[in-house]
Amino acid sequence: MITALILAQCFTVDGAKPGWNEIVVPPDVPQLAAFGADQFRAGETALVTHDVSQVLRHASKSGVGKFVVEASLPRGAQAVSVRFAQPLDGAKVDAVLEGSRGRVAVLDEKRLATAEVNVRVTLPDADRLVLTVHHHLRSAPALQSLDVEQLTVPVLEGVKSSPGTLFVYDAGGPLTLCNRPGVQLTVAARRLWEPRGPTAALRPRPQ
Predict the structure, then answer these.
(1) C-alpha dihedral over 50, 56, 61, 65, to 10 degrees?
(2) Model pTM?
(3) Angle value at C-alpha 62, between 60 and 66, nearest 5 degrees
(4) Is residue 182 helix, strand or coil?
(5) Domains of the chain, each with CATH number or no CATH
(6) How far apart are the C-alpha atoms of 55 and 74, rounded to whole Å?
(7) 188: Cβ–Cβ under 8 A, 6 or more apart, which residues?
(8) By the number of CB atoms within 10 A of the CB, which of 54, 76, 137, 141 ranks highest?
(9) 142: burial class by Cβ within 10 Å (0-12, 13-18, 19+)?
(10) Any idea of the CA torsion for 72, 74, 78, 84, to the nearest 10 degrees?
């Protein structure tokens, strides 16, 4: 039997298992959320992060003194974070968003010293980012990671649920939920392809 203890609108859920847990949220605390976990509410938008294995088209040298990273952007993409293995040491960086209606340059030969380049997706229908590092006499950069944040309504493969049902990915250990109005729920896109565990729906109830 699954039970929950309530304290200051926080629940400790007993019976959670590693993987996805489906939690029926009590109507008096509709904004329940975990801390530091992949999670989303059925039928509601969440910030979904796609990693390099899902969005990278290519990353390679292009001509003399140039290194190009090209990434696919899913519908609803909000931001892109590109991290290199070493700081860029003042190299010039171009970043161009492309879509069916045209292209927008969001960085134009901007000198960057850090290892990370962050780009906001300002073109509504953008489906591709082309980022060029003009390293010239510097060592060619090496791509370390690439993440694209997408605002969308997540769905677990093959799972249907009532609107507002909370899905939390438990990596192990106690699962604590608190009423957290206004908190943006986030989830790694790769988790959405993992099957829901053998657990039944969790029903937090104050004792």
Answers:
(1) -40
(2) 0.86
(3) 95
(4) coil
(5) 51-146 (2.60.40)
(6) 8
(7) 38, 48, 49, 51
(8) 141
(9) exposed
(10) -30
91: which 2 tokens? 């190299």
- List, for residues 18-44, the tens digit of each pLDDT value: 888 888 888 888 899 999 999 999 999
What value does the mean pLDDT take over residues 90-102?
Answer: 96
Instruction: Quick: pLDDT tens for 155-181.
Output: 988 787 888 888 999 887 778 888 899
Residue 114: CB atoms within 10 A of its CB come to 11
- The label of the residue with tokens 């029926």 reads 24
Strand order in the sheet with 39-41: 19-23, 166-170, 39-41
**132: amino acid identity, one letter:** T
Query: Any idea what DSSP says for residue 184?
Result: P
Backbone angles phi, psi at 171, to 5 degrees: -85, 5
For residue 197, how far is the Cα from the chain centroid? 21
Structure tokens at 156: 């677990």
Q: Please give the average per-residue pLDDT across 90-118, as a whole number.
A: 97
46, 25, 29, 15: which is closest to 156 by C-alpha? 46
What burial letters (b/e) apply to 171-203, b meaning 16+ CB within 10 Å?
eeeebbbbbbeeeebbbebebbeeebeebeebb
